[in-house]
Every structure is written in C-alpha cells, then in structure tokens.
Write a structure and sequence with these properties.
alpha+beta, Alpha-Beta Plaits, 4-stranded antiparallel sheet
Amino acid sequence: MSYTQLYYHIVIRTHCSYPTIKEEYERELYNFIYGMCKNRDVELLRIGGMPDHLHLFVALPSLLPVGRFVQAIKSVTSVWMKENPHFPDFDRWSKEYAAFTYSTRDKNMIINYIRNQKKHHKKVAFREEYRQFLLDNKVEIQEQFFLLD
C-alpha cells in the first residue's frame, strides 16, 4: 500500500484569454468538470475562475500525472463547450497551463483564494496574477513565450 496526498492548484485559460465563459453559465461548466473528476477518482476541492480562465484545486491519485489530467480536462470540456449553446464564443483552451503543488497546511489558503476570484480580479489582472504564480513558485519565465497562444 502506498500513501500519497497530491494537491495541485491548476490554472488554465481560454485561447488568447478571450472571455468566453459567461458568469451565468460557469456553474454548468464547473459541474461538468466535477463529474469528470469524480469519474477519474480525482477529488475536486475547489473550482472557480473568471470569463477567461479557471482555477482547479484537486487531489490527484498517485498514478495520474498532472499533465494527463489537464489534457483530459481541456480536451473533454472543449468538445462539451463547443456543443453547448451557453458557450457560443468558446474556441479552445490555451496550449499552456500552470500547475503547482501544495501541502495539506496550504489547503484552506488555496480554497479561499479560488473562492474569492471575482473579488481578487477587481484589483489584479489575470496577466499579473499568472506572472506572480510563476514567480512565487520559482518558475523561470521566458518572456517571448509568456501567455503566447
């Protein structure tokens, strides 16, 4: 028996950061993603976002790599959103994503951060938020590729 607790804060954005997730239908998207997570034995601790990006805080099973999980989320939701009349302007997700690991001690902090996205983005633009995530997690930013679709 292996014992793991793998928490990831994942950020994905729409292609070119276009605001294609309307607030009145975001819960529908979140519920769809919740179902996807449940079917993959992924614990979705919190989901939230803005019209141009999503934050997911998940506990992944040890045999599911984060990249494979993100790819599944992006590919399945892309098909679903293109078929759903509530997301008429959605084209696709950005190629890139960000994923950061956190410990159990950080759990409530990340959940609250995602819960307060609407309030947070009244003060901070997504571009600045994303850059700060990278800097805080010591990820080297290659400016020529930063948020490039």
